[in-house]
Amino acid sequence: MEIEEAIKRAKKNNQKAFNYLLDTFWDNVYGFQLKRTHNENDAEDITIQTFSKAFDKIDTFDESLNFKTWLITISKNIHIDLLRKEKNSINQVISKDEREVFEVLDESPSAEDKLITEQHLAKLLRDIKKLKPHYQEVINLRYFQELSYKEISKELDEPMNNIKVKLLRAKKLLAEIIKQK
């Protein structure tokens, strides 16, 4: 399958085309992020977010552009957004008694926040149970047991790219279930 053909098929929601594009460009995006972040986990997370966003917005891709460049641009923007969020976690610098003090946001949850989180978690678990068992399993292993992709790959005896695609697909299906409510 050629890249142009895969893009056209992906725009028609063809799963094999998504897999082909993921397999073809994963190393490029991951390598780009690894050079920027110097952290394998961050690079992997940003790369997954990149493909997830790209596949969600593939119908907006202008075929006169280079697909790899489009992915790298999405990846770069996601990384910049994450850096901005980190920067904003320190609210502002205050000068007090001739010394600088950083005012850090208090992110510890209140009792109400904990209750709301528990209720949301219960709803989320009910929604996850609506997925096919193999999607439930990858979500459980990744987000509840916090296994790496490599560990999930070994656990399920499947190639790591399959795990990544399954996880992307599971998240997309879960989002559709949640939106339907």
Automatic annotation (TrEMBL):
Residues 125-174 form the RNA polymerase sigma factor 70 region 4 type domain. CDD domains: Sigma70_r4. Transmembrane segments: none annotated. Residues 29-87 form the RNA polymerase sigma-70 region domain. One of its GO terms (biological process) is DNA-templated transcription initiation. It comes from the Bacteria. InterPro entries: RNA_pol_sigma-70-like, RNA_pol_sigma-70_dom, RNA_pol_sigma70_r2, RNA_pol_sigma70_r4_t2, RNA_pol_sigma_r2, RNA_pol_sigma_r3/r4-like, WH-like_DNA-bd_sf. GO terms for molecular function: DNA binding; sigma factor activity. Keywords: Sigma factor, Transcription, Transcription regulation. Belongs to the sigma-70 factor family. ECF subfamily. This is RNA polymerase subunit sigma-70. It comes from Algibacter marinivivus.
